[in-house]
């Protein structure tokens, strides 16, 4: 037993443990501009910080004297049963973090049957990712107004490759005001273009050092901005696919109600990890408001600021049906590739089980029994 415990201990010690430790290793391994692109928020990072301070203001009021000898975290979502309430948020250009990029992430997700949401601006193709992982996969779409056919074609490819849902990101109609990225040339704003009405600047592109860098920047510039996106486009997208449509980036309860009206299948309450509109409400506070009006009409997913199992339990207790992990897994990828992402996911699940057990909840489905209180 001692030998086994020692081995387990050594295995655990081989990996960073806290979010900060993962981030420190990731920072060491990534190129400076890449690390900055991942870690920073928009503007003065008011919202990025607020996501954390608000989560800390919410406290769990636990229940006692329940048998928690097994804790069941299985989750039903869109008619599928998943082993845990977690998904991985779409994060673009993962080769910035690790040479295997999204391939490694998708493989790690498969191990835990956690849905991986592949970004439109991923560094591996829809089909490449599907080939290496038959685990659950969703596809995130940045709408192209200039060329909707490109968007429809992406949806079609995702459908054909076995992706289970389309996540349309609605909070990125133009690039966020990210000053670090502007300095590093990682933002269209560094070219002086403030809205989606820009063209890729050939002089700027030629100034980039290598081909990979060029293609990465070109991807961002071409795809993320789409200021003309409206509810009508959502209706059009819905017509083109039988896959469920999830809107990512909803913060206002009226928009949540419109999502129901337009027949979408779910929403992700998110402020993009504080990377888009700075000064907006903390994602967890928006969740509490939206939950009240939606009241189980459609599933509500949640991200932004989640750093550990306790944060996820808070979101689930407030009303999220599932929680998406963002930066923590990207740091896992940068630090240790596929194994790093696996470790991050595993620890999220374990800590969630412990948290629920200590809070007296044996089945995630009964989380409503918890009390939740927010300090002013
Ligand atoms: C993102 N996010 C994002 N969202 C999206 O819909 N499409 C994308 O391509 C990206 N790309 C992306 C890159 C990087 C480096 C980051 C950090 C984030 C937003 C992401 O899906 C998620 O909403 C946030 O990461 C959640 O916040 P936390 O958990 O990172 O604080």
Description of the structure:
Belongs to the FMN-dependent alpha-hydroxy acid dehydrogenase family. GO terms for molecular function: oxidoreductase activity. It catalyses: (S)-lactate + O2 = pyruvate + H2O2. By secondary structure, the chain is α/β, with parallel strands linked by helices. It folds into two domains: 2-173 and 228-374, Aldolase class I (TIM Barrel, Alpha-Beta Barrel); 181-225, no CATH class. Helices cover 46% and strands 12% of the residues. It has helices spanning 2-13, 19-29, 32-39, 46-57, 101-112, 126-132, 148-160, 179-184, 202-207, 211-223, 231-240, 253-261, 283-294, 309-318, 327-358; strands spanning 58-61, 75-77, 80-82, 86-88, 116-118, 137-141, 166-169, 245-250, 266-269, 300-302, 322-325, 371-374. An eight-stranded parallel β-sheet has the order 4-11-10-9-8-7-6-5. Strands 1-12 form a two-stranded antiparallel sheet. A two-stranded antiparallel sheet has the order 2-3. Helix 5 packs across helix 6 (126-132) and helix 5 (101-112) packs parallel to helix 15. It is globular. The relative contact order is 0.19. Residues 191-201 have low confidence and may be disordered. Ligand FNR binds next to helix 3.
Could you say how many structural domains there are in total? 2
CATH H-tier superfamily of the largest domain: Aldolase class I
Give me the CATH architecture of the largest domain, please: Alpha-Beta Barrel
Rg result: 20 Å
Portion in strands: 5-15%
CATH topology of the largest domain: the name is: TIM Barrel
Low-confidence stretches: 191-201
Distance between the termini: 48 Å
Strand order of the largest sheet: 4-11-10-9-8-7-6-5
Top CATH class of the largest domain = Alpha Beta
Protein name: L-lactate oxidase
Family: Belongs to the FMN-dependent alpha-hydroxy acid dehydrogenase family.
Catalytic activity: (S)-lactate + O2 = pyruvate + H2O2
GO molecular function: oxidoreductase activity
């Amino acid at each position: 037993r001692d030998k086994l415990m020692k081995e387990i201990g050594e295995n655990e010690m081989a990996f960073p443990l806290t979010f900060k430790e993962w981030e420190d290793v990731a920072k060491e391994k990534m190129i400076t501009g890449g690390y900055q692109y991942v870690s920073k928020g928009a503007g003065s990072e008011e919202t990025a910080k607020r996501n954390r301070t608000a989560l800390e203001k919410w406290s769990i009021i636990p229940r006692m004297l329940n048998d928690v000898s097994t804790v069941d975290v299985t989750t039903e979502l869109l008619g599928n049963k998943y082993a845990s309430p977690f998904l991985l948020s779409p994060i673009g250009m993962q080769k910035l973090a690790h040479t295997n990029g999204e391939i490694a992430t998708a493989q790690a997700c498969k191990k835990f049957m956690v849905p991986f949401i592949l970004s439109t601006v991923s560094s591996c193709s829809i089909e490449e990712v599907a080939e290496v992982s038959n685990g659950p996969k969703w596809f995130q779409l940045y709408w192209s107004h200039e060329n909707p056919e490109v968007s429809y074609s992406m949806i079609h490819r995702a459908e054909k490759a076995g992706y289970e849902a389309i996540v349309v990101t609605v909070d990125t109609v133009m690039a966020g005001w990210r000053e670090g990225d502007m300095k590093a040339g990682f933002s269209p704003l560094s070219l002086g273009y403030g809205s989606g009405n820009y063209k890729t600047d050939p002089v700027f592109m030629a100034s980039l050092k290598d081909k990979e860098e060029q293609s990465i920047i070109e991807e961002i510039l071409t795809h993320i901005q789409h200021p003309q996106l409206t509810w009508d486009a959502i209706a059009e997208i819905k017509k083109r696919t039988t896959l469920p449509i999830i809107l990512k980036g909803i913060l206002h309860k009226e928009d949540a109600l419109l999502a129901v009206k337009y027949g979408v299948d779910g929403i992700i309450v998110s402020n993009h990890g504080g990377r888009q509109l700075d000064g907006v409400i903390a994602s967890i506070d928006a969740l509490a408001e939206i939950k009240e009006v939606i009241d189980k009409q459609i599933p509500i997913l949640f991200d932004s600021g989640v750093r550990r199992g306790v944060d996820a339990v808070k979101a689930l207790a407030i009303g999220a049906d599932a929680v998406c992990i963002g930066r923590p897994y990207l740091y896992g990828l940068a630090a240790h590739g596929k194994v790093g992402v696996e470790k991050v996911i595993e620890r999220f699940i374990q800590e969630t089980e412990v948290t629920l057990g200590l809070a007296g909840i044996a089945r995630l489905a009964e989380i409503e029994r918890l009390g939740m209180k927010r300090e002013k």
